[in-house]
Amino acid sequence: MDSYSLLYSSAHRTGLLSGFQRLRRQRKMCDVVLEAGGVSFPCHRALLASSSDYFGALFGETTAECSAGSVSLPALTPEGLDVVLDFLYSGWLSVSPSRLPDVLEAARYLQVESALSICERFMMDGLSAENCCCYANLAERHALADTLEAANQTVAMEMKDLLQKSRDELLTLNIQSLMAVLDADEMPGVKEAELIQLVLDWLEENGPLPLLKSNLLLSRLRFGLVAPSDLTGLGRLHRAMATPLIRSQLTRALEYHGLGPAQPLAQNRQSTLRARPNLLLVGGGPSADWPEQQMLAFDLRSRKFSCVTCALPLRLRSFCTCSVGGFLFVMGGEEVKEADEDEKKSVTVATSRQVWRYDPRFDRWEPAAPMLERRAQFTCCLLQDVIYAVGGRHSPPDAATHAGLASVEFYDMTDGVWRRGTPMPHPLHGHASAVLDNSIFVSGGLPGNRGAINGGDRFNQGEIREISRELFSWNLKDKVWERKAPMSIARFSHRLATAHGHIYALLGMYEPFCDIERYDVQSDHWTRLRPLLTGSSNYGTASTTSGNLLVFGGRRWSDGQEVTVKSVLEYDTKKDLWTEICQLPRPLTGTECTLLPLPD
User: Fold this and answer.
1) Which helix (H) or strand (E) holds 231?
2) Is the dihedral angle over the CA atoms 579, 582, 588, 593 positive or is it negative?
3) Measured CA distances, 103 to 106, 244, 316, 428 (Å)
């Protein structure tokens, strides 16, 4: 048997289509005429049948059109049919935003899937605030699922501008898209009251709708984000708001606002902000002695900072923060005030037990129940939506010493009170904590009941030698403190962070302050990792969703003096690698970090 080679020529295929296109323009050998909108298009039956499932079926042996000289297509426009025929004859699709509806209609009707795919790619690549509503309607009409999803997301992200500049286009949006947009968890800069008014206007423009459809639409609004004073009148704005389902949602929203301290525990979709969590940097400032009240938001995606409009109610240092149910809690610390004594400016510092709660929904601070004890240089953590305040110190008024604390207390949000927890084995301040596997871990710090105040958190050499390497854990089941393997070095004013099922101990105030180590819970063992070239203290830290650790600002030694820095460092826990990713707007020390959804 002779051997042979099978070779392919793309030029032949291109030439074949070019030949058919030339014959069509010259109207030679055409055996069927397509008619749309009074315009005739001579074509070749064989090419149409081989390129389109619709024509393949239309020109079948048993159909009346199989030998007809002309076929009328009244559902199509001449412009749309002309473009699709050019595509069948050449492989090139001429599409523009103005021509797109006609081309999509022709491609869908004639079942030319390759032309539909090109149109879908054209729409996806060109999505913008100017065309997202139009493209959403086209994608819904022609069942272009991916384009529909992308267009709906664009509508949600551009809603702020659309409400101001293109409200009429929003009122033409198909109901499926509008429901998808109202399901969006992120809608920058848009208040829920604006969405409610938009939906009511849409109902007026497109209604009346069947009860089921109007309920499906209105139930996607988040009435818990509307102020109580505005909720009571919503039921009278439109007849669709008076249905039993929507009335019950309005009632539940009012009940949510009346829960007071228990609000963080009652979070649901109706009371959750349409915003992604930002990393919030609370307090701190260029000087450790004079902290600022400003808060900064750090966007983890863009790595950019922005100022939060609402400032801390007090000027605090050595405090703690955490977020629960979309609320920010600021606890304890030392309140720093200006005072006038004998016509001289001075600064007073008093240890606080105050707790403040910030509600980003309404940009509002409210006092919460105070802690049982005054605490500074303590640590707090969140375990199953319960805030625990652990250890710390407080300084009695006009005293030259501070008292260390072994006590632990936790915040019962159901009743809005703090309750006593299991005390630590001994008093501790300047320690760090982290939560892993339903257990609280506490490391380092300075033990002891009392100590001299030597300028904030500075100690003499004897006290430095007392700084602890110990690690303790406490869990919800046994509720006792257990001593675990100690860290390799003693640490004070350091941080603990969790990532990938491990606990990381970062830096510290005293030598060796550059070191990092990782704790394995299963083996009860610490491993030293790559140190930072230049260590720092009094920095803010946070974990990212990828498991990396961020360090914001802090104080470090430079040329024999301590300076506040602007650096933002990222530690890759998998590669054991430090990188400076950006810089703070200004030098910052003493800041506390937590994740919190914030409206733009």
Assistant:
1) helix 228-231
2) negative
3) 5, 45, 64, 73
CB 395 within 8 Å of CB 401: yes
Kindly report, residue by residue over 167-176, the tens digit of the pLDDT.
999 999 999 9
Residue 447: burial class (beta carbons within 10 Å; 0-12, 13-18, 19+) = buried
Please check whether the domain covering 277-597 is classified as CATH 2.120.10.80: yes
- Pairing mode, if any, of strands 32-36 and 70-72? parallel
Q: How far apart are CA 514 and CA 454, in angstroms?
A: 24
E-strand ranges in 300-449 read: 304-307, 316-317, 320-324, 327-331, 334-341, 344-351, 355-359, 364-368, 379-383, 386-394, 401-412, 417-420, 428-429, 432-436, 439-443, 446-447
Render pLDDT for 80-92 as a digit per residue (tens, 0 to 9): 999 999 899 888 8
> Which tops the pLDDT comparison, 229 or 457?
229
The separation between the first and the last C-alpha atoms of the chain, rounded to the nearest angstrom, is 76
Q: Are the CB atoms for 525 and 519 separated by under 8 Å?
A: yes
The per-residue DSSP string of 403-443 comes to EEEEEEEEEETTTTEEEE-PPPSS-EES-EEEEETTEEEEE
Residues 6+ apart with CB under 8 A from 342: none
- Is 542 or 402 the better-scoring residue by pLDDT? 542
Measured between alpha carbons, how far is 515 from 539 in angstroms, rounded to an integer?
A: 15
What is the model's pTM?
0.86
The secondary structure element, H or E, covering residue 247 is helix 244-257
Distance of alpha carbon 23 from alpha carbon 549, whole angstroms: 67
Q: Are 306 and 294 in contact (CB under 8 A)?
A: no
Domain boundaries, the chain: 13-125, 277-597
Strand partners, 481: 474
Tokens coding 104 = 């999509």
Q: Rounded to whole angstroms, how far apart are CA atoms 547 and 556?
A: 25
Place of tokens 């609280």: 440
| CATH class of the domain at 13-125 | alpha beta
Helix axes 175-182, 211-218, angle to 10 degrees: 30
